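User: Quick sanity check before I run a bigger batch. Here is a single chain. Can you write out its predicted 3D structure?
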Amino acid sequence: MKNSPLPLAGVRVLDLSRVLAGPWATQLLADYGADVIKIERPGSGDDTRGWGPPYVANGEAAYFHAANRNKKSAAIDMATRDGASLIRKLASQSDIVVENFKVGGLSKYGLDYETVSAANPKIVYCSITGFGQTGPNSHRPGYDYLIQAMTGLMSVTGQPDGSAGAEPMKVGVAVSDLFTGLYATTAILAALRTAEASGRGCQLDVALHDCQLAALANQAANFLATGTSPKRLGNAHPSIVPYQVFDTSDGYIVVAVGNDGQFQAFCKCLNRPDIGDQASWRTNKGRVEDRENLLAQISPLLKLRTTKDWAKTFNDGGVPHSPIRSVGEALQSEQVESRSQILEHAEGLRTVGQPVPFPGQPNEPPPTLGAHTDEVLRQYLGLDEAGVDDLRTQGAIG
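Assistant: Done. Predicted structure follows.
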């Protein structure tokens, strides 16, 4: 593949989204070679440009730089007649539109699916909202935090009732937005394949609520199988034991015993093979059913040695484990360096790169607001310098 074009070379994406779910999807498309034109409000741009501190070298929020690599920024005011007209023309030349306005919010600009698809029947039009285009909550705004609460994710995250600090907790990253961005990307690529074969596109109705509900995975399946809602278990696993954080003499260690053979190896590392020999604990089913008694035996043993000592012992014994790293420790690890996961851009800017890269993948830093406005209008819409200047004078572009 060394000399092959990137998978999405020649595909044009009109990005009308902002914040995280939509930009996450379009960044993936851009990484894979799509030409992504990000439309931003003149003067302020994507909301996340101001979501700081912290800020990067160019004074913009680090948050924005997490989701907008390899894009072109065009500052066009869709609230103006000329601005909306420019964006409609760009939509007519695009293969994909991604937007996350409230339901019906783009109709007044002539940028809704019905209008855009009438001019461009092959368009893959991805609408990302909190709750979808239909249903009793379709009119409501959707934010990651609310979605984590509404879908039950927070109900299974945090310390169990009766423990110190027990309360439902959100995940430390906006996972509902990120899951939605990933689901949106896979749906876009599937729809694009159909559109290229048939000449007919479609509208994709992608909802944060739907995506996070699907991403409950085994926890949702557990309820559907039993009729009982899963409970918070802190750092323990509902279906695997031992699979949790343990105290050591100087900190913590995660032990992730995924099968019965690993449990026997774990017991040998503890110098207690007799624990593994007990009939009630030989199988994962038995360990889950007798969780508390087993933990009462093994937890005190792990407190006798340091995290580093246990890590070496478990390494030698073939037991899955890890110390709990800070974000900084994780990003500076030998594994990350060997996989070249940190991208270096100009002015000392660094971002975490695409985890499944293709050869020749672009490495352009997130754009400054409106950095490509003139280029986009000239290259794609054929405007000359005087025409661009006139639009700027009128306030249609930044």
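Residues 175-198 form the longest helix (24 residues).

User: Great, the batch can go ahead then.
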